[in-house]
Amino acid sequence: MFQLIDRRLNGKNKSAVNRDRFLRRFKSQIKGAVARAVKDRSITDIEHGEKVSIPVRDTGEPTLGHAHGGVWERVFPGNHEYIKGDEIERPDGGGAGGSGGAGQGGEGEDDFVFELTKEEFLNFFFDDLELPNLVKTQLQQTVVMKPVRAGFTSDGTPTNIHVLRSLRSALGRRIALSATPLDELNAAQEHLDELLESEDEHSPEVHSLQSQIRLLKNRLMNIPFIDPFDLRYTNRVRVPSPTTQAVMFCVMDVSGSMDEYKKDVAKRFFILLYLFLLRVYERIEVVFIRHHTQAFEVNEDEFFHARDTGGTVVSSALKLVKKTIEQRYSSADWNIYVAQASDGDNWDSDSPQCRTILGEELLPLVQYYAYVEITEGEPQNLWFEYEMVAQRHAQFAMRRIKTAAEIWPVFHDLFKKTPMHAGG
Amino acid sequence: MNTATKPRRKTRKAPISTGSEWTFELINRYYDEIARIAAEFGLDTYPNQLEVISAEQMMDAYASVGMPVMYNHWSFGKHFLSTQKNYERGAMGLAYEIVINSNPCIAYLMEENTMTMQALVIAHASFGHNSFFKGNYLFRTWTDAAAIIDYLVFAKKFIAECEEKHGEDRVEELLDSCHALMNYGVDRYKRPQKLSLEKEQARQAERERYQQSQINDLWRTMPQRPEVERVDAPRRFPAEPQENLLYFIEKFAPLLEPWQREIVRIIRKVAQYFYPQRQTQVMNEGWATFWHYTLMNRLYDEGSITEAAMLEFLHSHTNVVLQPGIDSPYFNGINPYALGFAMYRDIQRICTDPTEEDVRWFPELVGSDWRQSLDFAMRNFKDESFIAQYLSPKLIRDFRLFAILDDDYQPRLKVSAIHDDEGYRYIRQSLAEQYNLASREPDIQVFDVNTRGDRSLTLRHYQFQRRPLANSVHEVLKHIARLWGFSVKLDSVDETGRTVLSYECKVEKRHGQ
User: Fold this and answer.
1) Which of A18, A74, A75 sits opposite B76 (nearest CB)?
2) Last-in-domain residue among A206, A235, A264
3) Nearest residue in chain B measured CA to CA from A6
4) A contact residues 365-394, partner B, Cβ 8 Å cutoff
5) Number of domains in chain A
């Protein structure tokens, strides 16, 4: 008696529940791992899953067992050299190789490593930022693909047949195929006409010529009007629906007072803007500008990891942003976003200048300008100057924050807009 | 296999299939052939059920210890993640078979396998393991193949209901604690009762009420007759040490609610179901390997499979029975497939083609019908006794086995025996001992409950060969304390009964109420 069952069609995600439970149980560790990953990752590389490792001792399920010690006698295969009574030095590490007892114990100390999917990764990332759920789903959305016409192909579905093109190529083919027989036919016809003038119409020559003409006419008749070969189909390719491009400026104060923690918060701030842009634009360039008394354009690694000391002149960075926009990103072709992070320090005399540059020169060029001040101290003059800017410009948002969880409101207005508006 | 070649040639059939693709129809034909040969060899099996599954489903099955139904728990998710990671990295292939000790006996065929591999799996699982499940005394005593699936369905449903009623966290805590004691949920010496779903369900409600009243009664009546009690010599409760910790907790833990007791019971029953498997690794895998080898060879001899298929089979068979030596980088203990397979083959050899040495060592086997002798060996032993009975000097030589004595009082390890006349019995005995569950796992028993005082539970660890407990004991004690609800103490006593080491997990307050 025997039964053969095909179970392949049954669901394969039987373990999904248990997987979720595992993630829930180790939420704090996973969060830690995600935070570390965010630190190490490039801003533009945020949208992937992540390998997470948790120390094995945390995930372990304890059971009662023996430790190494006391008397152990074990049997092993593969003896080549020993005879009874031989003595062997105890291997290091409590018997990884020969001494038994803890034979497998040595391997168990690695971390427990597994992959988070992209969705899970972003979820943990957003958890810190306390994003509203709606925004989370918006950000997690994969790009919507839109079919776009892209010429013609020679195969496809009947609904996509392009009549004009098909008939045109049929015509071409007919002309091409009929050229030779038509020439021959014309020649034969002329020859026949000549013959008829001199010969009797029953002569064998005339007959053969006439049958040749019939043959040729038949050949012409047999050229099909339309052939599968002629069919042309409209071709559609799927492209991501937002097709505009954007440039994102990350501006950060790197003077001595910006410590690692503040930089980490700033990084999350930049990532969030990047994720938003990713959803809206097909192509995004990121420009990193750091400044103390002078501003430089740097690569991402230097941006986050190099340290400088000295005073702070914010206007230097604003000037550089403006210069870069003028040189490389004309605002007709690019949607420009600027995210600025700072701890609020600035030279007193520089702050009014910042207001002027920002309000009159920079803001008219950009889509959105977000400023965060990561500090626990009292607001300083830069903050007050910026506040004046904020009152006059809707595309300027600013916020004082202490932790990553407070970043979100900076982008509040931005996320309220639909992609269409934000893009235009 | 050793029949004369002439008649075999005549009856040589056309191969069942030549390519590597399998179809349902081919599986049916292979199954019929294998079943016919297995019947000729006298294999007695449960009815078979073959299920074709995909690789992902295989990983799902892995995660839930192979069972088609299982309650939910994060640890299964953990296993799933690690399997998935290893598989996707290519670090490990999936085992090509999982077989479930149930009636009908369910075996999984992975869709990625070739036809030859499917035939191998059918021979290995549906006839090898299946007949072992049906025949071996441990499985006959401890498990009821007909009831297990139903019971797991019941368990899953019950636990899911508890999660709804009492919250996932409480159930998870409880399951964590039970899992920690899973190996101590079995009666080692007492014969267990068999599982039966109807009985379980019918008794469940009654048990709940009755137990609760009993336990409350036990504690309530204690202080009422202090004078009488005091006259007696201080009596321990339980009167005899109890080895089944989960059973003891289920019956006597003062604070557990009825649903919690039921879950403890479920884990205990599941542990009991897996208990024989842990004791018969070598025998079970060896038996299945022996039979896939024998059946596939017979198929080949009859011409039912092609030479190409045979080579493919041999390739994977040799991988399975590979035993790397201790100095090999691949060494990872003794391979139960290799040892078991070699031992059954050796028994077969001794029966049919004994040497002078075998006559001295195994007089009862020499000249007997190998099928009957093998069948006897399969039915009546577990790993420990199987090795003690059947490991032959020839095998000890083939495997070049040697014993190493590691005594922490001595500065160096000592080779206590090798494969020579002097060492055969010694090695056989120590290898058997190595498979003795009782010496592999610490012997821990319930010793005393302080019924008149703080209700603390005292456990005893009877040291064997001065072996200490692993550090995880602290964690496990916390779990026991969580189940017991009051402080738990564990004394390690040496062979003379002297307490060497004490562990304690104090519970100050009642929780759960």
Assistant:
1) A18
2) A235
3) B52
4) none
5) 3
